Structure formats: C-alpha cells, structure tokens
Amino acid sequence: MELKEISPKVTVSPQIAASDMAAIKSAGYRAIICNRPDGEGADQPSFEEIEAAAKAEGIEARYVPVQSGMVTDDDVAAFGQALAEVQRPVLAYCRTGTRSATLWSLHEAKKRPVSEILAMTKAAGYDMNGVARRVANGGKTPTDTGDAHYKVVIVGAGAGGIAVAASLKARKPGLEIAIIDPADIHYYQPGWTMVGGGIFEAQETAKTMGSLIPKDVTWIKAAVAAFEPQNNAVILDGCRVVKYDRLVVCPGLKLDWGKIEGLVETLGRNGVTSNYRYDLAPYTWQLVQEMRGGTAVFTQPPMPIKCAGAPQKAMYLSADHWHRSGRLKDIDIHFCNAGGVLFGVKDYVPALMEYVKKYDATLDFFHNLVAVDGPAKKATFEVKEPEKEPRRVEMEFDMMHVCPPQTAPDFIRVSPLADQAGWVDVDQATLRHKSFDNIWALGDVMNAPNAKTAAAARKQAPTVAENIVADIAGRSAVAQYDGYGSCPLTVERGKIVLAEFGYGGVVMPSFPSFVIDGTKPSRAAWFLKEKMLPPIYWQAMLRGREWMAKPAKLEVAAE
Fold it and tell me: Is the Cβ–Cβ distance between 309 and 413 less than 8 Å?
C-alpha cells in the first residue's frame, strides 16, 4: 500500500486491497473514495469487497468510478460532492492514483492557484502540468504541442504491444519507441485455464511489466484518455499529451462483468468463479476439488470474446477431474452458450462432441447469462432461439464458471479510430488503419475477422513491425496477416484438440498430421501447451524471436 498525501485532508493511492483496511484505519483515515470502475484489471478486487472491509473497520466507502484517463466535468462534480459528504481525512484511490489526483486538482482549481495545486501534487509524486493546461484552455486539453514525442508510440503492453515493440527493435535497433500502459504486472492469460484445472500455479502466469518491456523502449506508465489522430496525439490521464510519427493500438479487451446483473457482487464466492480473472482461477480449481455432487454450469457470452474455446476448456478439465475421482455420475454439467454451435470451425467439432458425450454434458445453445443470484445459487438466462420468441429461464447451480461479455475498451469505442461496432478499423491483411495511414492495430481490439487469441497476436506482431519499417523507408506494405489463430482445447488432463485456423475458418495446421493431428485429441498437443508454449511466449514472442511466426509477403492483386 502506497499512500501519497496531497493535503492534510486528502490522500491518494494506487489500488488498495481489502487486507489493507486495518492499516488504513490505524493511519487515521475516516473514509475512502474508489475512483476505479469494477472490472478494469484482471487482478482487481471489486468495490463491494473493499466496501465490506471498510465497513468492518468503521470506515465510510464511496464509489465514484471514472473511466481510465477520461476525467469529465461531471466526474469532478461527483468527486467534490463525495468529498463534501464524508468525514476527513479521506483516502481516494484508482489504479495508480493519477485519476484521483486529477479529480482533486480539477476540483481545487476553482479555489486554489494552479501553481499551488502543481506544487502539492508534485510533492505527492504526480505531474499535473497537463491538468494546468486543461484549466488554462477552458477545460479542453490542447494537443498542438505535447509533453513528449516518439517515432513510434504503442498503446498497450499486453502480448501484442510488447511483441510488436520487440519485433520493431529486432529490425531497427535505434528506433525511438514508447509503450503506454498503466499496469505493473503482465499476465500470460492462456495459462489461466491451466490454473483453473490445477495444472499451473497462478504466480507462474505473472511477471513484472518492467522486466518484459524491451531494452531502450520507454515505458509510459499511464492510461490513455483519448486519441486525436489529426494532430498525431494521444492524451493520457493527468491531461498529458504524447505525440507520435506512427501509432500502434493494442490495449486488449474490456471484460464487462457489470453487464450481468448480480455477477460482480458474487464473483469469488457462492460457488461463482471465472478463469478470466487472475485471482479467481485458483478458486475454480478449489470449487472443482470440493464438488461432490449437484449442478455445474459453464457459460459463454455472445461473440466476440478472447479465446472462444476457453469457456468449454474449463468444463472439460473440471469434468475430467470428476471423472477420474469417480464423482462424475453425481454431477449434472450444463454448457450454456449464447451462440448456436459448440465451436466455430466445424472440423474440430466431432472430437469435441466425443468429450461432451463422455462427460454427459448438456449443451444449452442460445442461452445468454443475464443475471446471477449468488446466495440463492440461481442463474437467469435469456434464450433466443431462431424463429422463436425470446424467453427467460432460471437454472440452479452448485458451481458456476462464468465467461464475461467482452467489448472494446471505452476509450477505443468513443475514439475516431473505431468502426461502428467500436473496434479499431483496420485492413485485415496489412493491419493498417483504413482512415489514418500512420496508425496500425493488432490483438483483440481490432476488427479483422480472426479469433482473438495470443497465437493470433504472435503472428500479427511481425506483420505490423515489417509494415511499419517499410513505411519508415517510404515503401508500401510488404507483409500480410492471414487470420491465423490457435485454440488448444484441453479436453482432458494430458490431451488437447489443437484447433488452428485462419480467415474464413480455413484449417491451418502448424505441424504434419503424423506429429499432431489437430482434429483429434493428442498428448503431443498437450505437451506443446503445457511445456513449450509458456517459454515460447516469454522467451521468444516477447523478445522479438519470431519462431514459426515469420510474416507472409503481401500478395498484391493484379490490376
């Protein structure tokens, strides 16, 4: 816990944990204000967890969530009202403390000189010069000049962002690159299925961000508020401005936990879990081990989602454990899928159906989870079958694994970079933006019709790097992405159906069928997933070593 006092009455801090509350009380704080929306990070406790811990210590808790980097005048007013109503001293927190410091600064700008605000926030470790410019500019951040300028700016330090930075550095070692990302920890998210199945430990899937960002790449530890592509500018939290010659956009997806009524309040308790959150994947394995009988429900929301096979992987690994321990006959398994097929590429469905039969799982298609009552252990689904009236059904459960609805992050959806559906609008071959020719995108946030997997980003990063280097040299795009994605479907402990496919669902195997036949469960594919893919991720993909990921040459259609 890192408390940063701005004034005798207001302190700000990065994300706090429920376990910090006793120390917060002993430090004399009478109230806390949460400025971070639920579901923003993969390792983030919900406000409800924080509030319960605060109440237990006699501390008042207020929820004034502000979208990352997007502090509006209404947010400032809500923050000011909360400050007026709670007892002080008060602790306000967000992911890094910057949003809370920005809210305080803009609130105080009505009554304090800007110079005094800058001095107080600087003493607490926050640079509010951008806020000062916003105040001086009538509430709008000017982007004609910036706080920094780089040849290439990359938004997002997930799999795609670090991989493309490393691939660019491998091609042009002297290239001036900055990565913008507020997170301290980088996660190997494909490993969370294995954590939920008792194969990996959670800590094996996490490394510090600073240890992974390539040497000589500047890490700007901040959230993005907005894009102004006409000025080649990115606006950060704290109203700072970063200018670029070329921009790469890859911030990943937003997990929209709040879209399902009652879910946030019950996650991590009452038998409700999800492998889509770092801190909950171990709870999945705990529930699987404890389950002796009853109903186990596994859900999948409408597409698009990252790794479309992950919801059913959780089902297979859980069922396999119950099968091996002799409990399967006493457990009723339901796979509730908002879509109408088990898997989108038909070549892999026969092998998967064999396991559905083996585990005697019921496939409930067109079932979209809309509400959860954790204490009552009831789930409500909206059922929209073709040519039938929509209806709602209730299902009781003893254990439920939830895959949350997923969207592009808010700052992407409202930006000039997005298409009508909210995704970054790119050419699906070159990954260059369709309207701004010095912008590229990769990973889960762009609108190419490929599967949103880490394997896809592994192929996209060299393509983007190759095309940016060509652009710097004054040439046209030279590389193309073929839509490749991979989904290792963990059908049982020790066997995987290795789905590999490109645009249009075309099967694209990486190995000869005598090594791995992806349409059949194999031990070789399990060995690849368990033993080889994690080091390939950490030591090759994130280091610019493009093993089995060399970019394909762009095929230019004849005139």
Answer: no
What size, in residues, is the chain? 559
Mention every residue, 6+ apart, whose C-beta is less than 8 A from residue 426. Answer: 432, 433, 434, 440, 441, 446, 447, 448
Tokens found for residue 30: 């009478």
Structural domain containing residue 347:
257-406
Helices (H), 335-433: 349-358, 410-413
- The overall longest dimension of the chain from CA atoms, in Å, is 74
Residue 403 is among the residues annotated as catalytic for this protein: no
DSSP state of 129: H
| Catalytic residue flag (residue 307) | yes
Query: Is the confidence at residue 295, as pLDDT, over 90?
Result: yes
Spot the catalytic one: 94, 239, 336, 487: 487
Q: 287: domain CATH number?
A: 3.50.50.60
Catalytic position from the list 34, 94, 250, 307: 307
Is 414 found in the same domain as 396?
no
Instruction: Report pLDDT digits (tens) over 34-63.
Output: 999 988 877 788 898 899 999 999 999 999
Phi/psi-derived region of residue 523, left when phi > 0, alpha when psi is between -120 and 50, beta in every other case: alpha
d(CA 347, CA 487): 13
